[in-house]
Amino acid sequence: MPYSIALAGKGGTGKTTVAGMLIKYLVKKNKTPVLAVDADSNANLNEVLGLAVADTVGNAREEMKKGNVPAGMTKDIFISMKLEEAIVEEDGYDLIVMGQPEGQGCYCAANSLLTGFLERLTGNYPYMVMDNEAGMEHISRLTTHDVDLLLLVSDTSRRGLQAAARINELAAGLHIGMEKSALIINQARLPLSDMVTNFVADAGLTLAGVIPADDTVYEFDLNGRPTVEMPDDNPAIAAAEAIFDRIVEK
Ligand SMILES: Nc1ncnc2c1ncn2[C@@H]1O[C@H](COP(=O)(O)OP(=O)(O)OP(=O)(O)O)[C@@H](O)[C@H]1O
Ligand SMILES: [Mg+2]
Fold this sequence. Notes:
Structural class: alpha/beta
Distance between the termini: 15 Å
Radius of gyration: 18 Å
Mean pLDDT: 91
Strand content: 15-25%
Bound molecules: adenosine-5'-triphosphate, magnesium ion
Order of helices and strands: EHEHHHEEHEHEHEHEHH
Number of helices: 10
Number of strands: 8
Strand order of the largest sheet: 3-4-2-5-1-6-7-8
Shape: globular
Low-confidence stretches: none
Helix content: 40-55%
Largest sheet: 8 strands, mixed
């Protein structure tokens, strides 16, 4: 099983941005190959990584359900072929995009094939980074994979911190094998106010570190330029890497 890191937090706090920085960091440190999983139904991790996505696991599931399996092909072979198409291979890492969740109706057959496939797939990687959509719902669905490190991402807002604290509590109560959780405060206007540090301490969160608000991060995103192509000496990147040095298991 890979060492798996899942990102969670309130909307727009920077989960996907931090996930991209983390993937780049792991590749740079030769912790490869990394499996990057985009579990946000509004997938956009590929943009941060500068990749085009051809297909998603959700599409494969839909086609299986509809029975769109070509004549002479077993369902097993069909699903593994479709899923191959949903994996983008890059230097040092692969990206798989989960896509839309299932709609109404019975997906049992498709899902059991999918589960098997994804389990075999994750076995090939020492590290896995999973970007999630905002909120709590996906956390309660994290049942199949053990999460070694839950990375909570918040800005310095009260609601961001509250969301992080709630997700942390929820995850601790689930049996998802969560080994440890840590909070990253992103888009921070420095220095942090006492209100913020007190909130973090009172909520029992472990502060892994702070990433400053940085105009270049914002502008790259606005112009559709991949975050991972930013210079390494950018203050936000440097802060993120120092955090990863401390928290990612060697
Ligand atoms: N440290 C930072 N400094 C400046 N801007 C940032 C920083 N981190 C993220 N951003 C910007 O904030 C916006 C939201 O970031 P991102 O998409 O990573 O958040 P998210 O938590 O994944 O959002 P969602 O909940 O919609 O998935 C983007 O425009 C991104 O470029
Ligand atoms: Mg996101």
